[in-house]
Structures are given as structure tokens and as C-alpha cells.
Amino acid sequence: MNTLVEYMNIVPLLAPVDKVSTAYVLPWIDLKTALAVRFFVYCGALTSASEDHAHILVQCSCEAGSDSEAAIAYTYRKASAAGSNTWGTPTAAAATGYEMTTVDDGFMLCIEVNPATALNGNTNKNGRYVRLEFGAWSDTIAASLLAVWAEVEPRYKQTTYVSTTGAT
Fold this sequence. Notes:
Helix content is 4%, strand content 45%. It is mainly beta. A hairpin with an 8-residue loop joins strand 5 and strand 6. The termini are far apart.
């Protein structure tokens, strides 16, 4: 068995960076050949003097780079603090998203998107592309260190991946 060949397509989306007070979106992931997609959000230092929060939305669109995006529901699991291997139970998040707060400091969030939900989540029934959108923090936050990557599970196992980012 070749252990160097992984069947999960790992796509780095956001290198560890301090994202303070502004909303931002990540690149689109193409679901054309995907059986499933999971986004991992690793929260480093999240510090604030107040009860700040920001929402994490999953958007789907019929076309990468278009204005046809729509927020959809998803399932998430929250890991305990770094150095532990304890995950919470799968929890449904409405299209309004997960509310990230400073309590999430040092935690990891696994967001699973059902491709069928994305395909049916857009008004034209073709939400082939998905991405994460991070809403702006509700107040001034001192630090908001985040890293994000996606794991795309292909429908058919292969040693060379079909691109899952960008346009068709």
C-alpha cells in the first residue's frame, strides 16, 4: 500500500493570519467531483475586552465569482482545546451560521457541507460551488488568529486530483 497517496484532497484556504474586525470570504470549492467537503477552522488567539462575536456562514453559488451566492445550513463539530482529541457531537447550524466568540480561543471547528444541500440551496438549483464567509466582529477585537483548510472527498479515488478551486 502506498501511504504517500491520500484520497482526501486537502486544500489550504487561509494561512494563519490575524483577521481583525473585517468581514472576508474564502475561495470557492468546486463540488463537481466531490462526495463530501469539510472545512476546518482553527482558532488561535481570540481576545477582546467585550463579548464580541462573528458569524461563520457557508455560501453556495452556481458560478464561482458571481453574485448568486446564498447561505445554506450545515453541520459542525467543535473540538476541545489543542492537544486533545475530543470532538463534540454533530450540531446543525442554520443558514445564519455558527456564532464564533472569544470562547472559541484555541479550538477547532469542523464544518461539513452536504453537496446535496448546496445543490438545492441556490435559487437556480445549481449551487455547485461552496465557500466560507466570516462576518465582521460585532465590536473591536484585539486579536483574531485563524487558519482554514478544506478536505474534499472525491467521488472516485484517484492519485491525481481534479482541481477543486476556481472556475470550471
